[in-house]
Amino acid sequence: xxxxxxxxxxxxxxxxxLLYTLLHQKEIDIKGVIPYTTRPIRxxxxxxxxxxxxxxxxxYELEEQKKVIECRKYDTVHGPWFYFTVDDGQIDLKKGDYxxxxxxxxxxxxxxxxxxxxxxxIYITVxxxxxxxxxxxxxxRQKMPCIAEVCRRxxxxxxxxxxxxxxxxxxxxxxxxxxxxxAMEQLLLLIRKKNI
Length: 196
Known about the structure:
Blueprint: E1 4-8, H1 15-23, E2 30-32, E3 36-37, E4 52-53, H2 56-64, E5 68-76, E6 79-86, E7 97-101, H3 104-114, E8 119-125, H4 128-140, H5 147-160, H6 163-168, E9 175-176, H7 180-194
Parallel strand pairs: 1-7, 1-8, 2-7, 3-4, 8-9
Antiparallel strand pairs: 3-6, 5-6
Helix pairs in contact: 1-7
């Protein structure tokens, strides 16, 4: 039986970069899981690569079909955005290992769906000043930058990933993403231990 590795962390901790690097490692065979969202597509993104970009109506149809494993709503400065995981056949733990990005709340629902023994949390951390710099730099590259949304996400992360919430989810420690090389070293070590 394979494992489902769920990368999570505050915004701009480098989760996307780490997931991309992990999925392109030759020494391990891990498949990626593409999540769904109702937020607008960003510059440089492709439907079906980073996310499946759907309308709220399409999301509601999937919910009616009982295919939504977990769903998170964010009240952004642009209105509500939903991020969700769908039971669409992407994950088959009988066929191997998978990795995806989610939130702490999402991880708990994914763990409930697939079983605690099959889901491995990976908490990514970065010091707050570096994280804010990364988030601002990413936002500046957008066609219509919205610094207010960066600030909203930054502050929301403090509650979403509080020490108490991490402890309740039985998550301790984490992978420090000070450099991609160091973070990948830690990540691969953790995966090798789980696959023994």
